[in-house]
Design goal:
It is built from 9 helices and no strands. The chain is globular. It has 228 residues and is an all-alpha fold. It starts with a helix and ends with a helix.
C-alpha cells in the first residue's frame, strides 16, 4: 500500500504543479513564456518526486510508464492495476485541489479547462494528436527505461535526466496537444472540467489515453530489442 500511496502523492504533485502552472500562465504560442514555464513545471515535478518517492515506488506517476516498465519485465503483474488506480486517483485529487484553489482565490484559468489536453494545436485532427502523443511518449518512456536499466550507470542523476526529458517533450508538445504522455494527467483534469460544466475535454480524452499507452508499448519493445 505504501507504493500505491506514493504513486498517488506523486501524481497529485505533478498535476498541481504542472497543470496549475499552465492554468496560471497560459500557453500562448506567440509569447512563448507560458510554454517554457509549464514545461519546466512538469519537468521539475518529476525531478522532485523521483528523488522523493523513487526509492518507494520507482516514481512512475504515469500509467504509460507503468506499462513500459511492466512490459520490460521490471515489475510484477499484481502491482500494475494498483499503480494505475493510484495514479488516476492522485491526478483527480490534484485537479480538484486546483479547482478549489482557483475558485477560492478568484484566479482566472488561462487554459480555460484546468490544463486539459486538447486537439486545438492540430486543428482538431485526432489522428495527428494521436501521432504526437505516441511519438513523445515513446521518447519519454525510452529514456526512462534506459536510465533505470540495471545495466545503466547514471549514479544519482537518473531523476534529473528523466525530468529534463519530460521538459523537452513538453516544449514541443504543448503547442500541439498540451502534451499528455500520461493518461492519468489527462484523466484527472478532464473529469474535473466535466464536473465544472466543460465536457469538451472528455470527448477527445481517448487520444490522450491510447496515444501514451501505444507509445509506451513501442518504447518497451524497442528498448528490449536494443538491450538484448
Amino acid at each position: 500500500m505504501k507504493k500505491y500511496l506514493a504513486e498517488a502523492i506523486g501524481t497529485c504533485t505533478l498535476v498541481v504543479l504542472g497543470c496549475g502552472t499552465a492554468m496560471l500562465v497560459g500557453c500562448d504560442a506567440v509569447m512563448g513564456g507560458g510554454y517554457i514555464l509549464t514545461a519546466l513545471a512538469f519537468g521539475l515535478s518529476i525531478v522532485a518526486m523521483a528523488y522523493c518517492i523513487g526509492n518507494i515506488s520507482g516514481c512512475h506517476i504515469n500509467p504509460a510508464v507503468t506499462l513500459g516498465v511492466f512490459l520490460s519485465g521490471r515489475m510484477e503483474k499484481k502491482d500494475v492495476a494498483g499503480y494505475v488506480v493510484a495514479q488516476c486517483v492522485g491526478a483527480l485529487v490534484g485537479s480538484a485541489l486546483l479547482a478549489l484553489i482557483f475558485k477560492l482565490g478568484h484566479v482566472e484559468d488561462m487554459t480555460g479547462a484546468f490544463g486539459c489536453n486538447s486537439l486545438a494545436g492540430v486543428s482538431g485532427n485526432a489522428f495527428a494528436a494521436l501521432l504526437v502523443e505516441i511519438v513523445l511518449t515513446f521518447i519519454f518512456v525510452l529514456c526512462i527505461l534506459g536510465v533505470t536499466s540495471p545495466k545503466a550507470n547514471h549514479g544519482s542523476f537518473g531523476g534529473l535526466v528523466i525530468g529534463l526529458t519530460l521538459t523537452g517533450v513538453h516544449i514541443l508538445g504543448i503547442g500541439l496537444t498540451g502534451t499528455s504522455v500520461n493518461p492519468a494527467r489527462s484523466i484527472g483534469p478532464a473529469i474535473v472540467a466535466a464536473i465544472a460544466g466543460n465536457v469538451g475535454p472528455l470527448v477527445c480524452l481517448w487520444v490522450f489515453v491510447v496515444g501514451p499507452l501505444v507509445g509506451a508499448g513501442l518504447a518497451a519493445a524497442c528498448y528490449k530489442a536494443l538491450e538484448s
